[in-house]
Amino acid sequence: MPPATPADPLRLGGLTPLTTIDFPGRLAAVLYCQGCPWRCGYCHNPGLLDATAPPALPWTEALAFLQRRRGLLDGVVFSGGEPTLQATLPAAIEAVRGLGFAVALHTGGMYPQRLAALAPQLDWVGLDIKAAPAHYDAITATPGSGGRAWAALDVLLASGVPFECRTTWHAGLYDLDALHAIADALRQRGVRHWAVQACRTAAGTTPGWPMVAEQVAALRAGFEGFALRGA
Ligand code: SF4
Predict the structure, then answer these.
(1) What pLDDT, on a 0 to 100 scale, did the predictor assign at position 1?
(2) Following DSSP, what letter does each residue of 42-97 receive, concatenated?
(3) Alpha helix positions (H), the chain
(4) For the segment 180-231, what is each residue's pLDDT rounded down to a tens digit?
(5) 108 lines ligand 1 (CB under 6 A)
(6) Global pTM?
(7) Exposed e or buried b for every residue in 48-74, given b needs 16+ CB within 10 A?
(8) Domains identified in the chain and CATH numbers
(9) 51 Cβ closer than 6 Å to some ligand 1 atom
(10) How many Å lie between the centroid of ligand 1 and the Cα of residue 73?
């Protein structure tokens, strides 16, 4: 019997059939949601930004794939693009949970109220904290973006859902002192897991990354989980 589908299907740009790194402790598939309201210069998935693009992967096909993977995978990650852009996300998550999968969300945190409503359906969240609020708009090309992302962090802290903050950095975005200030702000809020990810420029380099690597002990202090990724 085919799995139940929401009335309005989720728009998907594609999927990764198996990942061991996107949902801690789970063998998972990743569903890439189409559309994002922000325009970060370093976006790794520009093909997913246009919310009006026709879905590259029909929702029914994604659900049929997941049904065939029952017993082989134990989790599904909703990534993007920005999953919370789509009003059909809660129904899509419910359909995936109905197949017996745990659910993770990757989000930029631009819709804190939607995130608060989704939290009871989620087993884990990866939240981008791209910068301090004052540096956000220059990265996302979107006014007011920093307040939204940091409000989403407060939502997650209040929800009790396990999560990791991710900060993508190179020295051209903001300096190392500002990166340490983010670490301090996260510690003060009670964040337990933080990852700093190397941001490559068009030239393929990550300016300043050796300095980050040298200061890893100071950056990781106080976090239960810490990772340096890339470069
Ligand atoms: S929020 Fe994420 S998906 Fe959206 S433009 Fe920025 S990096 Fe790309």
Answers:
(1) 47
(2) T-S-GGG--TTSPPSB-HHHHHHHHHHTBTTB-EEEEESS-GGGSTTHHHHHHHHH
(3) 59-68, 89-98, 112-118, 133-140, 145-159, 176-189, 209-214, 216-220
(4) 999 999 999 999 999 999 998 888 889 999 999 899 999 999 999 999 998 6
(5) yes
(6) 0.96
(7) bbeeeeebebebeebbeebeebeeebe
(8) 12-229 (3.20.20.70)
(9) no
(10) 27
